[in-house]
Amino acid sequence: MSETGRQSINTSNVLSVIMGGGQGARLFPLTKERSKPAVPLAGKYRLVDIPISNCINSGLRRIYLLTQFNSASLHRHISESYKFDHFAGGFVEILAAEQTFADASWYQGTADAVRKNTIHFRTHDWDYLLILSGDQLYRMDFREIISQHRETGAGITIATIPVGRREAS
Questions:
Q1: Which of 77, 113, 135, 160 can bridge 36 by disulfide, Cβ–Cβ 3.0-4.6 Å?
Q2: Confidence class for position 8, pLDDT limits 50, 70, 90
Q3: Could you give the CA distance from residue 92 to residue 49 in angstroms, rounded to a whole number?
Q4: 42/39 Cα distance (integer angstroms)
C-alpha cells in the first residue's frame, strides 16, 4: 500500500494520449508559426513537456501526441527530446491529423481526434486511456487518479479544480 492507503497502480496497462493540435489564438503572436503546445517555456522546454513529464514521472511510458495545427516545430521538438531504449517498450509518438479514403475531414474537436486515432490505440494492450491537454501547466501524479478511477468503478474520471462563478468566464 502507498502512503495514501491505495495499492500501487500497474502503469503498464495505461495508454496516454496528449492533445496537441490547438491553434492557440489567445497566445498570438507566440502561436504565429507554432501550435500552442509548442510554445517555449523556460528556455529549452515547450508547454507540451509538462504533461509528458507528468506521464513519465507517473511511470506512464506509452504516450501518443495528437497534432493538427501548425505542428512542424512541435514534431521537431518531440523527435529531438524523447527517446526511450528499445527494451523498455516506452514511446512518445506523434499521430498527426490525416485525411484517408474513408474520411477526408480534419479533427473536429477533442473527441473526434481521439475517435479517429482508435485504430492506432487498438494496436496496444491497455485497460485505461488517459487523455490529457497538451498546453496546461500543472503537476500531477496520474497513478493517484487512475487508482481512484479503478477503485470507484467509474466509467470516466475528469480531473479539474473548482472555480468560482466570478473567476469563470
A1: 135
A2: low
A3: 11
A4: 10
